[in-house]
Amino acid sequence: MPLTVIVAGRTAPNRAVRFGGEHDPLDDRGRCDIERLDVAVPTTVRVGPEASVRETARMLGIDVEPDRSLATVDIARWSGLEPTNVPTDELEAWFTDPDSRPHGGETITEFVSRIVAATQGFDGLVVVASPVAQALVARSPREYFTVSIRPGSVLTPPTPHHSDGSPRSVG
């Protein structure tokens, strides 16, 4: 089985577009989206540590210890803020330079590399927050913000990656 990703359902902060919303429980829509998923759960499963991720896993009948290596991006002092509460120059740096760290946490390059390394060679199911799924689908850290992920969805990342986050050929 190739790597399959279940994206945690929506939370109220997701709806409000607030940084760090994956740490909150699912909202009603998020729970409905997860209830509609038709997924065969394999024996090899890993689950991220965020509240929304753990709730998503429980709703699917998955009861495993959270895997901290699948944690969402550390946005440090931006956690809980709406983008309108962040200085424009900081947002611009964050969205255009994958090596910037205007919030004091992880860069996108560090985050994508960490997530790719954590899943390299893993064949099974992961239940993760949207930013983690985004890191797995992006072909490189520079393309991270071009990837759109829908909460409460199932996907298969298109291309395996090197541990540094760069794409590798499959053959």
Automatic annotation (TrEMBL):
Which InterPro entries does this UniProt record tie to the protein? His_Pase_superF_clade-1, His_PPase_superfam
Q: Which Pfam families match?
A: His_Phos_1
Q: What highest taxon heads this organism's lineage?
A: Bacteria
The record's region (Disordered) falls at: 150-171
Question: Which SUPFAM superfamilies does this entry report, sorted A to Z?
Answer: Phosphoglycerate mutase-like (SSF53254)
Could you identify this protein by its name? Answer: Phosphoglycerate mutase family protein
